[in-house]
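pinned: reference chain
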Amino acid sequence: MHTRSLGAHGPAVSEIGFGAWAIGGGWGDQNDETSLKALNQAIDRGVNFIDTAAGYGDGHSERLIAKALKNRSESVFVATKTPPADGPWPPSPYCRWQDRYSAAYLRDNVHQRLNNLGTDRIDLLQLHTWTRAWNDDPQPLLVLRQMREEGKIGLIGVSTPEQDQSCVIQLMRDGLVDVVQVIFNLFEQEPAAQILPVAAETGTGVIVRVSLDEGALAGKYSGEHSFPDDDFRTRYFEGDRMQRTVDRVEKIRADLKAFGLQDQYSPADVALKFVLARPEVSTVIAGMRSVAQVDQNTRTSQLKDLPDDLLIQLRRHQWHRGVWYSGK
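pinned: its C-alpha cells
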C-alpha cells in the first residue's frame, strides 16, 4: 500500500482509505461481524486511514471502528464528521451559522464523537457540510481551531456540499482548513479546475469520496438493477438513472479495451487510478463493507499507474448531470 501526505500538516496516510458509511447503515442489511472482519482485513492490507461520521448509523460506524482498533497495535488515522444542527441539507444561503453550528452545539457534538471513538483526541474533525454564505464569517471553523488548541482535535476539515463544492476554495486560501473532502471521479471532474490546484498551492490535504459513484463505476450493475428500500441508492439511482449510468460505464470499458488493458485493470481499478493520478489527492476513501471489497479496492494501489494517453482519453467521460442527491 502506497502512502501520501495528508496535506502540509498531516501524516502519511494510505492512498486507499476505508470509507465507513456502509458499516454504519443506510446501504441495506449489514452484519457487524462482517464489518469488523472488513475493518481488520483493511488494516492487514496496509490501510491506515478510516473516514466515518456521526450520521453513519447515528454513531454506529464510529463505535465499530473503536471496537476494531481496540485490538490492533497499528497506528490508524481516523477522520469523522459533525453534521449541522437540524435544518436543510446542505444549508441554504439563508441559514445562519449560529443556528446550525453554534459553539455550544459543536462542543457537545465533538464530545459525542470522542466518546463513540473511545479517544480523547480526534485525528481529523470535518464539518459534514457547509454553505458559501458563511465564508466571510466562518465562526464554526474558529471554534474548531480553539478546540484544537485545547487538544481535542488534530486537523480541521470541511466536506463539500455537492451543489457547491468550490465554496471551500476561499476557506483553503484563508488558511481555515487543513483538509477538504470532495467528490471527484470519472463523471465529476470539476474539482480539477480549481479545488485541486488551490489545495496544492495552500498545502491542503484532499480526501476524495464517491470515487466509484456509489458503486456504479465498479461496473457491477445492469441497467435494471434495483436496491432494497433501506439502501439510499434506491433514491440516488431512481428512475432511469441506473440505465443512463451503465451506458456511460460501458463506454469507459470500451476505452480500456481499446488500450488493450481490460485484463490488467477492472473498471473499479480504472476509476480509482484515475483519481490517484492527481498528485494533489491525499487519499481516496472507497466504501468497504466486506473482506472481498477490501481486497478489490486495496489491490489497486499495487497496480501500475494508468498510461498518460489513457488518462487524457478518460477525461471525456465528465458528465454534467446535475446533483442527484437532491432527488432531481
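why pinned: Residues 241-258 form the longest helix (18 residues). The chain is about 35% helix and 15% strand.
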